[in-house]
Design brief:
Elements: H1 2-33, H2 38-61, H3 68-138, H4 144-182, H5 187-195, H6 200-233, H7 239-255, H8 280-283
């Protein structure tokens, strides 16, 4: 009995925790979706969440006692509310993911831009050197002064490109370090994205769908399971004993009042004595000593 008692509380607690957290995430997600009427959405969504739990319990307890149209309507309503709750949970988790990765995505975008800029500057440097070599090669051998002037003209440009390349390389290094520090929050998602050779958004979306697939349906299932456990823990009463107890209670209430007891003695009349007929022997007259009949 103790084990059943504790198990009942465990099922109830787990149902309360999962249903409560699902309701919180759903209400928060819906309030973010309809941010223009946050308080109204919270009241509406909270009422619907509570009604969903009561509706599931009602359907389980009174399934065989209610009409078919009510069964169909309430079943559709509970399933629809499960879908709405799942949508709210999806909004909450996606909002949390975006909040955790917004800085990461910002730094990643900046890093991509800097790396592209670095590649472009490297190409400009190579092109500038090739242009200088081509211009020098077109001059005759004895035009040393002209060649020197060309080099003096191109050298500042090359040096400027070198400085720009060094600055961008420094910025790229700083961004990579910042990404490592920022990516701690989404490190598992990054690792999974690299392991499955896909992007982070796809991995996170996949896990969110898994969570909403088991979250609210599990909460409703545990609510129904808790109702089933309650049925098993309720003691079954014997109707005869119940009636006897009710009669005893009524008797006790009545016995408080003075009751006059009447003792009725039934007098059984004695049976009438009927004279039995005398035997023939007794009817024969007695004979005298002398002979017949008194002679």
């Amino acid at each position: 009995m103790k084990q059943n008692k504790y198990f009942k509380y465990a099922v109830g607690l787990s149902a309360l925790l999962i249903a409560g957290s699902a309701a919180f995430f759903s209400v928060f997600g819906l309030s973010k979706l309809f941010a223009g009427a946050t308080i109204s959405v919270i009241i509406m969504a909270g009422s619907l969440e509570f009604g969903k739990i009561i509706g599931a319990s009602f359907l389980y307890r009174y399934w065989n006692k209610i009409q078919n149209w009510l069964k169909i309507y309430m079943t559709i309503g509970v399933v629809t509310l499960i879908l709405i709750t799942s949508g709210g949970i999806f909004g909450f988790l996606s909002n949390a993911y975006q909040g955790a990765t917004i800085e990461f995505e910002k730094q990643s975008t900046t890093l991509l831009y800097k790396e592209d800029r670095l590649v472009q500057l490297e190409e400009d440097k190579v092109y500038l050197k090739e242009e200088l070599e081509q211009a020098i090669s077109e001059l005759p051998e004895n035009y040393r002064t002209a060649k020197r002037q060309l080099r003096e003209e191109y050298n500042p440009k090359v040096l400027e490109l070198n400085d720009m390349i060094l600055d961008i390389k420094q910025e790229v290094g700083d961004l990579k370090v910042g990404l490592i520090e920022t990516g701690v929050d989404v490190g598992p998602a990054i690792y999974l994205a690299r392991a499955f050779k896909t992007d982070i958004d796809t991995v996170v979306k996949f896990f969110i769908f898994i969570l909403i697939f088991v979250f609210d349906p599990m909460a409703v299932s545990l609510i129904i399971a808790y109702n089933r456990v309650l049925e098993d823990t309720v003691p079954k009463t014997n109707p005869t004993r119940t009636i006897t107890r009710v009669l005893e209670k009524k008797t006790k209430k009545i016995s408080k009042k003075p009751v006059e007891e009447k003792i009725v003695i039934d007098v059984i009349p004695e049976p009438e004595v009927i004279d039995e007929p005398k035997s023939p022997i007794q009817t024969i007259p007695k004979l005298g000593r002398g002979g017949r009949g008194g002679r």
